[in-house]
Amino acid sequence: MPVKVGKYEILDELGRGSMAVVYSAHDPFLDKNVAIKLVHSEALNNEKTGDRFKRLFFTEAHAASVLNHPNILRVYDANIEGEYYYLVMDYIPEAKTLGDYCKSDSLLPLRDVVNVIYNCAKALDYAHRQGIVHRDIKPNNIMQTRTRDIKIADFSVALINRDDYMETQIGGLLGSPLYMSPEQITERDMTNNTDIFSLGVVMYELLSGRHPFRADNINAIIHNITREDPLSLSEFRTDIPEQLESIMKRMLHKESVQRYSMGLDLASDLALIFQDLDDMDNEDALKQKFEAIKNLRFFDSFSDVDIWELMRACDWHKYKKDEYIIQEGDEDHSFYILLSGIVSVEKNKLSIDHLQAGDCFGEMGYITKTKRTASVRSSSDVSLIQVNASTLDRANESTQLRFLKVFVKTLVARLTDTTSVLAKN
């Protein structure tokens, strides 16, 4: 590991590939850490590979000079100093590549996958409009920061179609065969949507934990990419929206003209998926709330219609352990029903009772609208329903009457228990 490259002080090795090593380094002039991609000197000096590696270096340097997008890894500097050919890039601490999320035991949530591909599609659209085709989109070339931002990296094998770039494009099979489009792996003419196909392969892996075209040898891989359709995503999971499956099929279409022509077209369709996912999340959440209410003894006499009415009418809250829900002396005119967790009822900071899922509290404050005579504090994580006159008015009259009937029964039972305890004392 060199001590210094140019003005940059080398700190540590971050990664190593066939073409280059990436180091973390310190820029003393700007007083910040950067990443340096240093091309292997043995590759540059090799009679057979030297010229090719130098041209790949200049390709990436030129691509970087025209690309400035929040989802593309920024390159600040490119230089040759003695035997060193190097690029200076953003340093992203604690970054992971998408390769970390392509196994069945480490998959991202569905919404996160859609968001990742959405941002990649926008970044590729930007690059394509600058006349640059990446040609090596794969999980290990897409980084996720600790704040979940996406950065596409490594434009070393990019195809550049710009008036200001006069270099002869490097021919041959460049990139990673498992992620190549049919036209790329058979060395035919490529357009922007070769990157769309590769991104589709990445998306398939992120959703399923499996590669759609994996095989034991290059001939079998070529056959799968050009001839075989991958298994439906529904073979691996049941939560895939039908529209997302359709988007995937279009991205992986064998004929390039049948794919998305531009990244923004893909991004637009993915944006609609977010709405579908919101609808799915809302529906799932409502089902969970329904089951949570229906299983509580307070609601034993309620019909399904009554429960759905209350779900829309009541306010739902969650509390972490040791948070006060009610404080002694406060004016709080609400009535609470515990859905999960345990709470402690306290008087003068001394615990006098514990309540759990299905229990209720706050009845007297709800009726008398006076200051609270006791505090209620969560003894664990708690979820509950808060009811007051204004929220209950949202439900229809029959549901309100049923609620008040059960409420009175609960209050009478609570008063009877209190009277019994006082009589024994």
How many distinct beta strands? 19
**CATH fold naming of the largest domain:** Transferase(Phosphotransferase), domain 1
Quaternary organisation of the protein chains? single chain
| Unreliable sequence segments | none
Percent strand: 15-25%
Which architecture of the largest domain would the CATH scheme give at its second level? Orthogonal Bundle
Number of domains: 3
Average pLDDT rating: 85
Helices and strands in order:
Layout lengths: L3 E2 L2 E9 L3 E8 L4 E8 L1 H5 L4 H17 L8 E7 L2 E7 L5 E2 L12 H20 L2 E2 L8 E3 L5 E3 L6 E2 L21 H4 L7 H16 L9 H10 L14 H10 L11 H32 L9 H10 L1 E5 L4 E3 L8 E6 L1 E6 L2 E7 L3 E2 L1 H6 L6 E4 L3 E6 L1 H4 L4 H28 L1
Antiparallel strand pairs: 1-2, 2-3, 3-4, 4-6, 5-6, 7-9, 8-11, 9-10, 12-19, 13-18, 14-17, 14-19, 15-16, 15-18
Structure report:
The protein contains twelve helices and 19 strands. It has helices at residues 41-45, 50-66, 110-129, 182-185, 193-208, 218-227, 242-251, 263-294, 304-313, 363-368, 389-392, 397-424; strands spanning 4-5, 8-16, 20-27, 32-39, 75-81, 84-90, 96-97, 132-133, 142-144, 150-152, 159-160, 315-319, 324-326, 335-340, 342-347, 350-356, 360-361, 375-378, 382-387. It has a six-stranded antiparallel beta sheet with strand order 1-2-3-4-6-5. It has a four-stranded antiparallel beta sheet with strand order 12-19-14-17. A hairpin with a 3-residue loop joins strand 2 and strand 3. The protein starts with a strand and ends with a helix. The model has no long low-confidence stretch (mean pLDDT 85).
Short précis:
It contains twelve helices and 19 strands. The chain has 425 residues and is an alpha+beta fold.
